């Protein structure tokens, strides 16, 4: 050792290893092998078939798809809440130097635009079937007229 091995240093090392050895042994032999292998701290649900994979008369499949849709919506709501909070905290912290928060503002606006494209204007009839129909109608519109928000073409293209 680089330092002098006097009796105090030896005593402290022995005391450290007397306390540390059982703790390390229990952690390596019992705790780590029995830990769950996924790094998630919230409940993970298995993915069920989406509404476009369900038969029209399969109520169970429709209900599972609707529950998964609602869970996904609540997760996306929380993501928007976190992004908005980060942006607001950044603006509050930096004050007049709001240009430092532009990347957070862009991430929030992009996420909110995607959220609105999926869930917006659905009102009280928010379920997986109506969201699927909204997506279908949006795709038909974009095929005929171009991306939403770019204005209508003068002549619709043949699909």
From TrEMBL:
Main location group = mitochondrion
* Keyword field: Electron transport, Membrane, Mitochondrion, Mitochondrion inner membrane, Respiratory chain, Transport, Ubiquinone
Q: Which GO terms describe its cellular component?
A: mitochondrial inner membrane; respiratory chain complex I
Query: What membrane topology does the UniProt entry give?
Result: Peripheral membrane protein
Q: Where in the cell is it found?
A: Mitochondrion inner membrane
State the family it belongs to: Belongs to the complex I NDUFB10 subunit family.
| Name of the molecule in the record | NADH dehydrogenase [ubiquinone] 1 beta subcomplex subunit 10
High-level lineage: Eukaryota, Metazoa, Ecdysozoa, Arthropoda, Hexapoda
């Amino acid at each position: 050792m680089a330092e002098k091995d006097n009796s105090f240093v030896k005593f402290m090392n022995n005391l450290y290893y007397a306390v540390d050895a059982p703790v390390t042994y229990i952690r390596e032999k019992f705790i780590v092998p029995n830990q769950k292998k996924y790094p998630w701290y919230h409940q993970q649900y298995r993915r069920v078939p989406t509404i476009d994979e369900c038969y029209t008369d399969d109520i169970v499949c429709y209900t599972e798809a609707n529950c998964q849709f609602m869970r996904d919506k609540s997760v996306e709501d929380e993501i928007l809440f976190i992004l908005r909070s980060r942006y607001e905290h950044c603006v509050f912290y930096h004050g007049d130097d709001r240009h430092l928060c532009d990347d957070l503002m862009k991430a929030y606006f992009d996420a909110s635009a995607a959220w609105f494209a999926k869930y917006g204007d659905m009102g009280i009839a928010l379920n997986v079937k109506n969201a699927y129909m909204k997506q279908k109608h949006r795709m038909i519109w974009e095929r005929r007229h171009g991306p939403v928000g770019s204005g209508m073409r003068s002549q619709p293209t043949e699909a």
